[in-house]
Amino acid sequence: MHAEQIRKLLEQKGVRKTKIREAMLALFFEKDYALSHADVETHLPKSFDRVTIYRTLKSFEEQGLLHKVPDEKGIMRYALCPESCTQHQHSDSHLHFFCRTCEHTYCLHISLPEPALPEGFQAESFEWLAQGICKQCAGNS
To answer: Is the sign of the CA dihedral 130, 131, 137, 138 positive or negative?
Structure first.
């Protein structure tokens, strides 16, 4: 993704443009899987400190740029939101896929129906996680 497109996305979401925000968004567009805080820290220049990365991830989530993706190990990862996410409403009820070989978690934009809950239960969100072997790892066997 070009710097101009990243700048427009930040503008659209009302997020001030900074070097770390541009670098982080570029990283998320480059990778096709969800990234943990440690993954982001590893891929960015050492000049960006751990706390700033954490705050930027949190800010991106609050602004509807990223959503949290828990994996089967309990590690919180982040992935780009669809365009329909906003500051006040995430629309990330889609399937996540955890590859047991490479240990990457992918967003698969497959719509899933909300389950019918027993009377009296009110869900605020759903987390869908499938596990297996991703297409890249399956192709390497």
So the answer is: negative
All residue ranges of the chain with pLDDT < 50 are: none
Whole-angstrom Cα distance, residue 53 to residue 41?
A: 7
Rounded CA gap, 51 and 88, in Å?
Answer: 24
Domain ranges of the chain: 3-139
Q: Please give the Cα distance from 82 to 64 (Å, whole number).
A: 9
- Strands 35-36, 105-111: pairing is unpaired
pTM of the predicted structure, to 2 decimals = 0.80
* Beta strand ranges found along the chain (DSSP E): 35-36, 66-70, 76-80, 94-99, 105-111, 128-132
Whole-angstrom CA distances from 135 to 6, 33, 42, 90 are: 28, 12, 24, 27
Residue 68's pLDDT is 86
Query: What is the reported pLDDT for 41?
Result: 95
CATH of domain 3-139: 1.10.10.10
